[in-house]
Structures are given as C-alpha cells and as structure tokens.
Amino acid sequence: MRLLELLLPSTLETLYMVSISILFTIIIGLPLGVLLVVTEETTILPNKFINTILSWIVNIGRSVPFVILMIAVTPFTRFIVGTSIGTNAAIVPLIFASIPFFARIVESALKELPPGIIEAAHAMGTPPKLIILRVMIPEALSQLILGTTITLIAQIGYSAMAGIIGGGGLGDLAIRFGYQRSQNDVLFASVLVLICLVMLIQFCGNKLSNYYNKK
After folding, report:
1. Rounded to an integer, what is the distance from CA 128 to the centroid of its chain?
2. What region holds the ABC transmembrane type-1 domain (predicted)?
3. Structural domain containing residue 50
C-alpha cells in the first residue's frame, strides 16, 4: 500500500512533465524541422544562410548532454518558473533537450518523401505554405508520429535523469528512496513503471502510425 502511495503521484508527475514538454517540443520543433528541409538549396524555399544557422543551432543543442543542459539553463528556468527544482522546473530543460532532437527527426521524415510529390505541387503553382501544410506534412504523417513516439520515450528517460536535481517524477523517487535510502523495492518498482510507460507509448505510437500509413 505504501509503495503504491509513493508510485502514483510520482508517475503522475512524470506524465505531467512529459505531456507539457512534448507539447512545446512539437510546437517549436516541427516548424524548425520543416525549415531545415524547405530552406535547402534544391527545395521550395532555398536559403543557405538560414539553413546553415538553423543546422548549427540544432547540432549544438543535440551535442549538450542532458545533465549539463539542466545546469546550464538554471538561470532561465528560475526566470520562467521561479525555481530551479521541482516538476515545473524540470520541464524547461526537457523542452530544450527535445526540440533539436525532434527537429532532426522531422527533417529525416520529410526528406524521405518522394521528390516527385513536392515537385508536382510546386509545378502546379501551389504556394510553399500550402505545399508544407497539404502535401509534405500529411504525406509524412506516419513517420512524424513515429518520430513523436521516439521523442516521448527519450523524454521519459530525460525526466528520470531530472531526479538528480530534485525534478520530481519516478526518477526522483528512485533516487531519493531507492538509492539514497537503499529501498530496493521502490527502486525496482520505479524502473518497472518506467518500462511499462515506454512499452505503452511505443505500442500506441506504432498503432497510430500504421493507421495513418494505411490511409
């Protein structure tokens, strides 16, 4: 009973962190990934300068280990949420870590589209905005869903690491009770719940991706 009382709020905290962070990751990361594709020299909005700058930003963001990133964005985290510890504070580095990761996934998904589809739409005089919204994203939707699934799973791992700085969630529970107090049952239960969350997200993501792929 006591174990359940510990696991339930920590699981809800993890789900809260991941839900908010994936929302902002998609809002920012999806347009960023699209821009990485459409600003290349051979695409619909070629702009080498913008493409180079965005690529550098994404590469730098992806190269910083999450533990270091949590510390590096601490001043910004305090400015946004008023504190550098707790569940809300952990969301900020989660978003920073996920955006470049997701942007590259979006870029990869869009680059797998047959060039003829985009060229045909462009030849018909379709504006670039409509090509992106009505051709590129719908055609790549199945892969984008898989990419979102991968990002969600990565965020669960990141959220567990956020427990190092008291970020809340299952990672924090495993560290405070399982490791520091040597309560192995709490540690193993926390890991088991994390595994179940990952498997559930992967299952749902695969089903949803297959559904849109068949359409």
Report:
1. 26
2. 11-205
3. 2-214
